[in-house]
Amino acid sequence: MIKLQRSLPGVLMRRSLRSYLINATMRMFVKPRFKSPPMSAEEMRAFMVSHIEPRARDDEGVTTKDDELAGLPARWVEPPGADDEALLLYLHGGAFVVETPKAHTAFLTHLTRACGIRAVMPSYRLAPEHPYPAAVDDCLASYKALLEHGYDPTKLVLAGDSAGGNLAMVTLQQVRDLGLPLPACAVFISPGMDLAGTSSQVENTKRDPMFNEHAMAAVIAHYLHGDFALASDPRVSPLKGNFEGLPPLYFVAGSTEIFRDCSVHSAHRAKEAGVDASCDIWTNMPHCFPVMFQGILPEASQALKDIVKFVRTHVDLSVAAAA
Predict the structure, then answer these.
(1) What is the pLDDT of residues 291-320, one digit of tens each?
(2) Is 287 known to be catalytic?
(3) Quick check: is 255 catalytic?
(4) Which helix (H) or strand (E) holds 137?
(5) Which of 177, 163, 175 is nearest to 134 (CA)?
(6) CB 191 within 8 A of CB 262
(7) Tens of pLDDT along 92-143?
(8) Annotated active-site residue in 85, 99, 257, 299
(9) Candidates 99, 200, 287, 299; catalytic one
(10) How far apart are CA 157 and CA 205, in angstroms?
(11) Which residue among the candidates 142, 162, 200, 237 is catalytic per the annotation?
C-alpha cells in the first residue's frame, strides 16, 4: 500500500506546529549551503556534523559498544530485554561522504528499544577518499559476515536512510543475485535510489526545505568522482535494478523532498515484481525526519511506531523482546 499523504491523526492542520518551524529554519540556514560548485568533502562534513549531531538524544538505558564487523569499525546497540537472535543491520546516511555517529546512534537507541531488537551500524568507507564501489563492497561484506557469524536470516532486518537506504537496496539486490539467504524485511528512510534523478528532484527543488538542484551534484562529484555515466549502474542507482524476489519492503519519506519519488517508484516497482512493499509519504516532512528529529517532531515519533509495527510483523521476536 502506498500512502501519498501520511499525516498525524487527530491534528487539525494535519501537521505539528514544530514542523513549520523546523522547515523554515532549514530553508534559511541549511538549503543555501548547497550551491555550485559543490562544497568540498571537508566542508560538507563540518557543516552536516554541526547541524545534525547537537540534536541527538539517546534513549537512556540502551547500551552501545564500539567493536567491528567484517573488519570495519562498527557500533553495536542493545536495548534491555532484546531478542538475542534478532539483529538489525543499519546503514547510515550522509551523502556517501559524511558520518554522523552520534545522531544515528541516538535514533537506533529509540528504534531498538521500541522493536526489542539489537542493531549494528558499520562504518563503511566514505567518499571521496574511497569512491564507489568501496561503500557497496563494505555493506555487502557486513551482511555476509552476519551470516557467517551464524545469525538466522529470518531474524535479520536491513535498514538505512538517505545514502544508507541506497546501499541497503543495493545490498539486498546483490544478496539475492548471489543466492544468499535474504533478511526477513528491509526499511528505507528517505532513500536516494536513483542518482540520475527522478521527477521529484525537479518538482521539489524549490519546495524541499533542505536540498536544492545542486545537492545531487555534490554526491556525483564525491561518490562517483564526477563520472555521471556511472549513475545508470544499478549498484549506484538501485531503482534501475531488479526487484524480483526481495523480502517485504517499507519506505518512508517526505512529500516535498527531492528524493520523494525514489521511495514511491521503488515501492511501485517492487509491487509490480510481486514483492510485499508499502510506502508512506508524509505531508511536508523534511529529508530523513524520523532520524534527525526523533523526540522533537511528533511526526517522527509516529513514523518510528510505523517502522516498529512493520518490523514486528515480519520478524518473530522472543516473548520478552516483544513485550
Answers:
(1) 999 989 999 999 999 999 999 999 988 655
(2) yes
(3) no
(4) helix 134-148
(5) 163
(6) yes
(7) 999 999 999 999 999 999 999 999 999 999 999 999 999 999 999 999 999 9
(8) 257
(9) 287
(10) 32
(11) 162
